Fold this sequence. Notes:
Elements: H1 15-20, E1 26-27, H2 36-85, E2 93-97, H3 110-124, E3 132-140, E4 143-153, H4 159-162, H5 168-177, E5 191-200
Parallel strand pairs: 1-3
Antiparallel strand pairs: 2-5, 3-4, 4-5
Helix pairs in contact: 2-5
Amino acid sequence: MRQSTRKFMLSAAVLALLTAGAQAGSHGGGNAAANPEMAQLKGEAVGIIKTFFKELKGTLVGAMKEKGPAGAVDVCAAKAQEITARYNKEGWEVGRTALKLRNPKNAPDAWEKAVMEEFAKKIAEGADPKKLAKAEIVEQDGKKVFRFMKAIPTGKACLNCHGDKVNDDVLAVIRKHYPQDQATGFKVGQLRGAFTLSKPLN
């Protein structure tokens, strides 16, 4: 698992969140109904995402209104770690990851990669990406860990920073912060990334 200090780099890229919304959707982990602990953890995870989304959206919208897409990249990148740190508490590790990364520090681990590949396959088969989520209790280093992911689909607004025709001024700022950026060329409805949460269990 990555360090809990993993940065949640909140550039204009997070326009994806405006489309993803804070819906919990239909969760994976079919044993939840028969497992009260799983149901409680899922509820906590969904609540964190909703609150986290609200703060991220407020930060992004304010930056976009004041400085436009290129300026918002600078503003949000500067505030990202501070925002994320407030949600890494009470045992929870909160972040965002993707198959095509903007920030290499958000690289997925094996479980996250497999879940996102599953999400991408379901989307290709016609599933609504806004409803895709997965909850599971896994074993890591001999300990049980609850893990939760919720898909973030690409919306129309996301194309400003993630499409195949990103403006040169926006690209310049993206490359300044993320020289290894891979997160362009997306089309509406494709999987942009996912919220990822985990919590060790006693």
